[in-house]
Amino acid sequence: MIEHHVRVHPSADRLPREDQLAWKLASVATGTEELAAESAAMAVNRLIDNASVAVASLPRRPVAVARAQATAHPAAEPGASVFGARGRVSPEWAAWANGTAVRELDFHDTYLAADYSHPGDNIPPLLAVAQHTGRTGADLLRAIVAAYEVHVALVKGICLHKHRIDHVAHLGAATACGLGALLRLPTETVYQAVQQTVHTTTATRQSRKGEISSWKAYAPAFAGKAAIEAVDRAMRGETSPSPIYEGEDGFLAWLLDGPESEYGVLLPAPGEPRRAILDTYTKEHSAEYQAQAIIDLARRLREKTGPLERVRSVVLHTSHHTHQVIGSGAMDPQKYDPTASRETLDHSVPYIFAVALEDGTWHHERSYAPERARRPRTVELWRRITTVEDPEWTRRYHDPDPDRRAFGGRAVITLEDGSVIEDELAVADAHPAGARPFDRPAYAGKFRTLAEGVVTRAAQDEFLHTAERLAQLSAADLDGLFPAVDTEAVAAYDATLPKGLF
Fold first, then answer.
1. Residues 325 and 235 in one domain
2. Whether residue 214 is found in the same domain as residue 341
């Protein structure tokens, strides 16, 4: 790996484009060729994972709205498919609808380092453009691995959250790079597309603060749509704000650490295998990733606490990120509000710990149902749970060794008689370093569980067989990556939505 030092330059420097971060990211994409077998296999896992959560989210309102917007933009041949809909639409709109479906349940893969990310959000726009342009499964595999490589590098090297910039700014750049790899575009074209995408997809983190709205699902879909449009413009010869990262009025100087900004971004050397996808991990539970280990810990502690009416207080000792983003350190009263939105509750670790402690399980719908959140005994327990930052957990969260990195915490439960119960868990059971790391059968099992009642058993078998042969798929075979669902039932639901402009 090569560490690239990125800092602000005045316009007078005329920084050569080959020395700019956007060019270096583009070069990684256009230089992605032979894939490591492990990386290709993990890309298949993530494609299965995305389909799992997409089909489970089809009847949810934000997904239905995005689908309705997309199907109002039918494409001339060939176009791209939309989960739950017949026909083809323009690829940027397919990316919009499918990206929203993948993200809605907060239930697919994650990578946490200096910043946050859901690298699986790259897949919907890549798949849409692959269908539209007649690319093969091998082309799509190369694109996915390239996008993950760029995404993970940015998340490791550049923190956005500290400056309250939403993490989709890194996603947009990665998707543009993945599209460049998919289409085998010149580095110059990808460089321009990366800069356009970063410029147009930078937004604040208010989308994940206070009363969290459905935009949380749309934000990555918007980035994917914007990346496709940027690539289209760049292919037509249009240029971009440059240098987008290093410029004196650019990304680093005014949105991040200021004129004295300096970052180190690790990227593979020419010819080096692209393995960053192997550093990422999926979710067993439908909740913010930092809550995954906390859910598993609550299930384990349930056997020790006895009647929960005896609990006087619970303090979760955890990392800075967990405390500040999904814990009481966020200072969001909405995180303790029984009438809060689902999007808010899945970013409230006190709520999540309370429900997991009571139920001993977690469900992507039942655990967030309004009647579940408003249960008086749950609310009483929930409001006794707080978080604190523990410097040791923060250090472990950022440990450079992925085998030692920890995203969990330590729970201290004080009972009414003054006795204390303590336990801790570093990583979720499904994490690569956890008690039950996810493997191909686990991904397939997750798909079957979430597709139950939506996709017939025969259609489930057909989808899994197709996905597992991704490297051998022809362009026409990519249609099989969309599991067959009852589109009439979906359309009937869509018909109940209010009408918009399209």
1. no
2. no
**pTM for the full predicted model:** 0.94
The tens place of each residue's pLDDT in the chain, 502 residues long, gives 999 999 999 999 999 999 999 999 999 999 999 999 999 999 999 999 999 999 999 999 999 999 999 999 999 889 999 999 999 999 999 999 999 999 999 999 999 999 999 999 999 999 999 999 999 999 999 999 999 999 999 999 999 999 999 999 999 999 999 999 999 999 999 999 999 999 999 999 898 888 878 899 999 999 999 999 999 999 999 999 999 999 999 999 999 999 999 999 999 999 999 999 999 999 999 999 999 999 999 999 998 998 999 999 999 999 999 999 999 999 999 999 999 999 999 999 999 999 999 999 999 999 999 999 999 999 999 999 999 999 999 999 999 888 899 999 999 999 999 999 999 999 999 999 999 999 999 999 999 999 999 999 999 999 999 999 999 999 999 999 999 999 888 988 888 999 999 8
| Pairwise CA distance, residues 173 & 150, whole Å | 8
> What beta strand segments (E) does 279-371 contain?
311-318
Cα separation of 414 and 418, whole Å?
6
Question: What range defines the domain where residue 394 resides?
Answer: 289-425
Check whether residue 74 and residue 184 sit in a common domain: yes
Whether residues 166 and 302 share a domain: the answer is no
- Is position 496 within any domain? no
| Interacting residues of 305 by C-beta distance below 8 A, sequence separation 6+ | 311, 357, 413, 415, 421
Q: Residue 249 sits in a domain of what CATH number? A: 1.10.4100.10
Residues 264 and 200 in one domain: yes
Phi, psi of 487 (to 5 degrees): -70, -25
